[in-house]
Amino acid sequence: MRRLALILAPVALLLLPVAVFAADTAASEGTIPRNVSVGGVDLGGLTPEEARDVLEAHVASLEAEAAVFTVDGTRFELDPAAVSFAVDVDGAVDLAMRQRPAEGMVDRFGQWIAGFRDPIDLPLPATFDLEELDAILDRWEQAAIPDLADPGGIDVVDGTVVVRPPRDGRAIDREEATAIVGHVLATLGSSGADLPIVAASPKVTLADLEEAAGLVEGMIDDPVTLRSAETGFLVTFRPPQLAEAVRVEVDADTGEIDVGFDPDVIARFLAPRRDEFEVPPVDAALDVDVETDEVIVIPARTGTRLDLPGVVAALEEAALGNGLGPFPLDVGLEPEFTTADAEAAAADIGFVSEWTTEYVPGEARTKNIRRIADEVDGAIVQPGAEFSLNEWVGPRTEEDGYVAAPAIIGGEPYCCDHPANIGGGVSQFATTLYNAVFYGCYEDLEHRPHSLYFSRYPMGREATLGYPHPDVRFRNNTDSILLIKAFYDERTVTVKFYGNNGGKKCTDETSEPQNVVPHGEVIVADETGELLPGEQEIRKGKDGFTVTVTRIIEYPDGRIEREPPMRWTYSKLDRKIIVHPCMVTGEPVDCPAQLPRLVGAEYAEAFATLDGMGYVVIRVEVPTDDPTQHEHVVEMTPPAGEWLEPGRSVTLKVAVYEEDAAES
């Protein structure tokens, strides 16, 4: 037994690490291997999601921390966002997960042991924009290095070409500085770094600049004229404009000098004349001879557009040549709706339906009806699309040519100081359009009859219009476009539909008025102050009733479809007798009377007259030297002819003869 125990003890010692390895490996399945970090951030033992959260928090701290650098003794701070600093967190986590790969049990055990003794720190996969960094380093050099190397340049001052000679000096070592910046940005809590300064000599020589200056002088000395062969457009650039537009770029790294014209400046010079050489493409259009119902195609027109790179190139060539050159344009810009599109559409459509209503010439509402007809004429509704009269026309405003006219406001006809009166009468056009929809068999989406019935419209088959509601909306539920023509003459407005509804025909079935509610009669006080006692204004009443309209669709195969009936109830409108407020009871009550002419009458007679009419008489005496005027009325306020309610006062000036006054 003792010998067996002695044998088993070493075996147990050998198996113990294996057991721990097996348990640890099972527990860490799906996590980043032990002792693996990214940019100094330990991710070992974390799931990819956990590692991503930890790394994103680390990156957020880096992005929030300004990096500090010193250039020739001058301190600068760099916001990581200024160079588009970014870290590929997902890539870093994926790479960390692939560390310590192993094949087979022995290799896996070896990597497990290595995880305790051999740490792996992966670099943070950070990136930043080199062009943005270069621009910042340029600014830092200008601010910090007094003897900065200068490649020189060429300026145009008051039309004179001036050469700035190149100059030796010092500069930031860009390659070393870029590496240092990348390291500092990726290190949390970095104390900053000095950027190395080196001696620098421009690769551009004075001779190179002088040669380029001669080229510039040749480009700006004389006017340059460009002409478009397509449009005949002609433009001449004067020397001051050429001097402003010329640009010289010196590449300090390569020594190359680029001379040309700045496209932005050339575009600015041309902008005021853009309409002369740029012509937008014009869509093809469809029109109709409403007398013959023939659909007419109006061809499309291609457009032209500025070819700015081409113009700049032509300008540079002409400036170095004889001063003349072409004005390039992009020609042949196609419209969205081509002539071919229009011809195909025209071949597919024809007359479908129409409706006409009558109006009285010369009325304000007639002007509104004609205005909205003009706005709708020529509208095209694509297959499957909806048409909204309100969306197409917009609010009716005086600026858009509409005027005040009667409208139903608050359930009664009213005119004309309410905002809703602007455009009054357009409901007649809405009714005309709706009936074209109805008989064209198109899908009715929204319409509402008037609250009161007007005999100029078909019962129940009419539509009122307000903004934004009520509206007239329908869908072109066909496979062909729908062209709307709206036109008018002295007494009528007509809407015609041209499309292809598949040969359907629509008719109506309209009931007689039902549930008639006779209108009553009311006496109403005049609120305008225009009616006098005894006068009256009569406003006709309307009976209320209910009507039912059914649309019947007949298909080419003879099939008949009856749509659900549309039921509408019109309100009654009582007949109104409008009278002076004193007559609303039917009998006069404290009605005003017209003042008689009393100037020249004896006061006693005048007093008796006014007192009998119920007025308060105020006597004011005025002296006279004419005994024949004694006790006669010489002035009356209010004057004769005015209307005055009983109980009001009337002032009479009465002449009084005084003998002493006459003798003096």
What does this structure look like?
There is one protein chain. Helices cover 30% and strands 29% of the residues. The protein is of the alpha+beta class and 664 residues long. The protein folds into five domains: 17-144, no CATH class; 208-337, Ubiquitin-like (UB roll); 349-502, no CATH class; 504-589, Resuscitation-promoting factor rpfb fold; 593-663, 2-Layer Sandwich (Trypsin Inhibitor V, Chain A), CATH 3.30.10.20. Helix 2 packs across helix 3.
Oligomer: single chain
> How far apart lie the N and C ends?
173 Å
Give start-end ranges of low-pLDDT stretches: 11-15
For the residues shown, what is the average pLDDT?
90
Shape: elongated
Helical region count?
Answer: 17
Overall radius of gyration: 48 Å
Describe the structure in brief.
This protein has 664 residues and is of the alpha+beta class.
Describe how the helices and strands are arranged.
Layout: H1 2-27, E1 36-38, E2 41-42, H2 48-64, E3 67-71, E4 74-78, E5 86-87, H3 89-97, H4 104-117, E6 120-122, E7 126-127, H5 130-144, E8 153-157, E9 160-164, E10 169-172, H6 174-185, E11 193-194, E12 197-200, H7 206-220, E13 224-227, E14 234-237, H8 239-245, E15 246-250, E16 257-261, H9 263-270, H10 274-277, E17 285-289, E18 294-298, E19 303-306, H11 308-319, E20 324-326, E21 329-333, H12 339-348, E22 350-358, H13 364-376, E23 380-381, E24 386-388, H14 389-393, E25 407-409, E26 412-414, H15 426-439, E27 443-446, E28 473-475, E29 482-488, E30 492-499, E31 505-510, E32 514-517, E33 521-525, E34 536-539, E35 544-554, E36 560-562, E37 566-570, E38 575-579, E39 593-594, H16 603-612, E40 616-624, E41 633-637, E42 643-644, E43 649-657, H17 659-663
Parallel strand pairs: 1-6, 3-11, 13-20, 33-38, 40-43
Antiparallel strand pairs: 1-2, 3-4, 5-7, 8-9, 10-12, 13-14, 15-16, 17-18, 19-21, 22-30, 23-29, 24-28, 25-26, 27-28, 29-30, 31-35, 32-35, 34-38, 35-36, 35-37, 39-42, 41-43
